[in-house]
Design brief:
By secondary structure, this protein is an alpha/beta fold. Helices cover 41% and strands 20% of the residues. It contains 7 helices and 5 strands, in the order αβαβαβαβαβαα. It has a 3-stranded parallel β-sheet with strand order 1-2-3, sandwiched between helices. Strands 4-5 form a two-stranded parallel ribbon. The longest helix has 16 residues. The structure holds 4'-phosphopantetheine. 4'-phosphopantetheine (PNS) binds next to strand 1 and helix 5. The site of 4'-phosphopantetheine (PNS) has 9 residues, from strand 1 and helix 5.
């Protein structure tokens, strides 16, 4: 028990991050106040269609947190708990927006716990400004030419404009 108290507190923050939004950035920043290290884990799911490749998604995140200590970026294909087992971490960090997130998050947290006892999920509430945002709604608006400036980091904003053949601003 005493030994554990002085261990580095590491959390894995998994997600699709297709692409990272300012809501995700907010959760990572909040997480930094609690954990010594956060590994932002881009999950690769071959059955899920994504707009950006895993490499691009990782690059966006690395660019956003360039020079910030205590934040690592990695990717993983397969079960999250397998990644945890190899990394030695036992804490999953997830953000919670509105009540609508609760059911999905509850389901995942309990399923992960069922797979392995040695895991806890910590939920942080995202900032009020980001309650209505998600990668999906942002992609949809951007794809029809709507403005998503300020909802995603600027590198992602520019890339979305490029992706949907919109004029860069
Ligand atoms: O950003 P998302 O899409 O809500 O993140 C979901 C994610 C990637 C955290 C979840 O699908 C996941 O953990 N995928 C890895 C595969 C896995 O372990 N699935 C079982 C989860 S209970």
């Amino acid at each position: 028990m005493t030994e554990q108290r002085f261990e580095k507190k590491v959390a894995i923050y998994p997600g699709s991050f297709d692409p990272i939004t300012n809501g995700h950035v907010d959760i990572i920043k909040r997480g930094c106040r609690i954990f010594d290290e956060i590994i932002v884990l881009v999950a690769f799911n071959p059955n899920k269609k994504s707009l950006f490749s895993v490499e691009e998604r990782c690059r966006f995140i690395r660019e956003v947190f360039d020079g910030v200590s205590g934040i690592k970026v990695d990717s993983h294909s397969g079960l999250l708990i397998d990644y945890l087992a190899t990394s030695g971490a036992s804490t999953i960090l997830r953000g919670m927006r509105a009540l609508s997130d609760f059911e999905y998050e509850f389901q995942m947290a309990l399923m992960n716990r069922r797979q392995t006892k040695n895991v806890e999920t910590v939920f942080l509430m995202s900032g009020f400004r980001w309650f209505f945002t998600s990668s999906n709604i942002i992609k949809e608006v951007a794809s029809f030419g709507g403005s998503v400036k300020g909802l995603v980091p600027e590198n992602v904003h520019q890339r979305l404009l490029e992706k949907f053949n919109r004029k860069k601003v």
